[in-house]
């Protein structure tokens, strides 16, 4: 038997002709649309039937709750099997063909139920919403299985809520109605598929004539070059090829990164310069929602690899949101400081008034001088070491709060921080959280002391906050940075356990770190390192500093 000639062998895969490919794709699309349409029809039908059952249950519950005798019987009788409440509820249930009608009082105790053993027991589902005056519709499970439920409050003659009425309609009956409709729906879907196949054949013939049998590869190539849609997206998009070079920049990416079209075809390090933004785009820094600073903008970046070995990075402008958050944090800190100063000022005014009433005028003058001198000395010591005004104001305020709580807040002699912070509000948030945490740790302990050290190492800012508190066990050094973890009881007005988590997130999003260890002499020492936290000094200032250094050496 001779082998089959090559020209007559069966070819696997899609046919080469455009007409055949379009026909097959259209048939597949028609089948998918038919299945999708069937599903889209079944989903709202199910919701509609469930909604109908829930409204019916709610209507029965409302009718039952409007019976004044039921409310009166709950107040004047006991929950018994042959009681008037059970008798009336069963009458309504049989008349409406409901699965159950449960009447309960404000203590969650059942007064009626289809299972008489449940009368006098508490309900299995939470009726708090109905007892709070709300009407509830839901699909839920109880002692009688799944059902469509309606719950309404039960009020007495004066309108006070004394209980609730819960009515259920069997959920299986709703499902049975839905299943009975499926054969008819499938018949319609089959007819739609047949019509779709015919339409696909007609469309394929028309496409064959209009495209002149143009290959799909040619059409795909033409469409790939038309990427203008990306320029309308209000999010920066940067595409990189497998070699790590920038392949595409949309208009928003040009604006956010501050670069022009000449960056296309160049690596991120060459187009943007070395820094965190280039590291994120190049994939050297990984993660989601990475924070980076580009010029005056705070950007949130995400990078996703593509199948061809390249990557697509998206950039979102978060400058205004970050500024608002920092301003809020600093405002809250200043409010605490003002509150403490107001309390301290009132105490000193009372002291001064007492001295004047005792006619101890010399002592009063001396007391005023000491108070003014203490405040001036504290402010001068802080501003001499920390030149950023926002951060200096925060520490002055925290010193007042610490003094009110009996804690000595000390700025280390090693502290030196110039006024070149890229994101001063971010550092205010970090310092404020760590100082507040330290004050909470040492409050009420003997010789309570908190020390803050802030210094610049090139463009890196290093922060250390030490306290004389009980310290943190070694096994909890990482756990304390977990969101929601705290050793203190949460107050009624806010959550605890988010301050240290926020500190670490802010540090890591700026490419830094936040750690904790043991301080010398006991207590805890928190260390935060923020790379590129300081801007480069201006050339004029650098030249002046060099000139001054030369003159001093002479």
TrEMBL record:
What is the official name of this protein in its record? histidine kinase
Q: Using the record's annotation, list all stretches that form the Histidine kinase domain.
A: 423-534
Instruction: Output compositional bias ranges, type Low complexity.
Output: 534-547
Source organism (scientific name)? Streptomyces pseudovenezuelae
- According to its UniProt record, this protein's enzyme class is transferase
Q: Which InterPro entries does the record match to this protein?
A: HATPase_C_sf, HATPase_dom, His_kinase_dom, PAS-like_dom_sf, PAS_fold, sCache_3, Sensor-like_sf, Sig_transdc_His_kin-like_C
Subcellular localization, per the record? Cell membrane
- Topological type in the membrane: Multi-pass membrane protein
Taking the first listed entry, what is the main subcellular location of this protein, grouped into a coarse class? membrane
Q: Which UniProt keywords apply?
A: ATP-binding, Cell membrane, Kinase, Membrane, Nucleotide-binding, Phosphoprotein, Transferase, Transmembrane, Transmembrane helix, Two-component regulatory system
One GO molecular function term of this record is: protein histidine kinase activity
Recorded E.C. number(s)? 2.7.13.3
Q: Which PROSITE patterns match?
A: HIS_KIN (PS50109)
Catalyzed reactions: ATP + protein L-histidine = ADP + protein N-phospho-L-histidine
């Amino acid at each position: 038997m001779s082998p089959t000639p090559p020209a007559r062998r069966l070819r696997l895969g899609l046919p080469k002709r455009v007409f055949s490919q379009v026909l097959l794709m259209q048939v597949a699309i028609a089948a998918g649309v038919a299945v999708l349409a069937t599903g889209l029809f079944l989903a709202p039908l199910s919701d509609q039937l469930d909604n109908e059952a829930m409204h019916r249950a709610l209507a029965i519950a409302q009718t039952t709750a409007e019976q004044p005798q039921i409310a009166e019987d709950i107040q004047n009788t006991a929950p018994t099997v042959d009681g008037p409440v059970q008798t009336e509820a069963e009458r309504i249930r049989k008349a409406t063909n409901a699965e159950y009608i449960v009447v309960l009082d404000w203590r969650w105790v059942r007064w009626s139920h289809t299972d008489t053993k449940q009368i006098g027991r508490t309900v299995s589902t939470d009726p708090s919403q109905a007892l709070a005056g709300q009407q509830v519709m839901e699909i839920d499970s109880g002692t009688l299985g799944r059902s469509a439920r309606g719950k309404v409050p039960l009020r007495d003659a004066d309108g006070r809520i004394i209980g609730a009425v819960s009515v259920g309609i069997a959920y299986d009956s709703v499902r049975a109605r839905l299943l009975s409709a499926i054969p008819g729906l499938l018949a319609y879907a089959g007819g739609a598929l047949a019509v779709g196949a015919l339409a696909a054949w007609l469309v394929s013939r028309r496409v064959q004539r209009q495209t002149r049998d143009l290959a799909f590869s040619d059409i795909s190539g033409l469409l790939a070059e038309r990427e203008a849609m990306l320029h309308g997206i209000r999010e920066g998009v940067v595409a990189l090829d497998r070699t790590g070079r920038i392949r595409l920049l949309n208009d928003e990416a040009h604006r956010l990164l501050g670069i022009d079209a000449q960056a296309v075809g160049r690596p991120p390090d060459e187009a943007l310069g070395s820094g965190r933004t280039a590291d994120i785009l190049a994939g050297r820094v990984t993660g989601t929602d990475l924070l980076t600073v580009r010029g005056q903008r705070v950007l949130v970046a995400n990078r996703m690899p593509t199948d061809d070995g390249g990557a697509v990075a998206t950039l979102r402008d978060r400058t205004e949101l970050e500024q608002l958050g920092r301003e809020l944090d600093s405002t809250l800190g200043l409010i605490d400081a003002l509150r403490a100063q107001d309390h301290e000022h009132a105490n000193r005014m009372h002291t001064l008034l007492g001295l004047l009433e005792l006619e101890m005028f010399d002592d009063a003058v001396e007391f005023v001088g000491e108070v003014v001198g203490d405040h001036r000395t504290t402010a001068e010591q802080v501003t001499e070491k920390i030149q950023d005004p926002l951060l200096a104001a925060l520490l002055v305020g925290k010193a007042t709060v610490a003094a009110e709580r009996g804690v000595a807040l000390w700025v280390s002699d090693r502290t030196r921080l110039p006024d070149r912070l890229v994101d001063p509000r971010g550092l205010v948030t970090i310092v404020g959280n760590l100082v507040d945490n330290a004050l909470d740790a040492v409050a009420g302990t003997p010789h309570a002391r908190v020390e803050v050290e802030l210094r610049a190492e090139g463009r890196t800012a290093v922060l250390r906050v030490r306290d004389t508190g009980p310290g943190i066990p070694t096994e909890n050094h990482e756990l304390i940075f977990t969101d929601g973890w705290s050793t203190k009881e949460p107050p009624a007005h806010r959550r605890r356990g988010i301050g240290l988590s926020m500190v670490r997130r802010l540090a890591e999003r700026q490419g830094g770190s936040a750690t904790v260890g043991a301080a010398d002499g006991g207590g805890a020492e928190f260390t935060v390192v923020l790379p590129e936290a300081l801007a480069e000094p201006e050339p004029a200032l650098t030249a002046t500093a060099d000139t001054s250094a030369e003159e001093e050496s002479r």
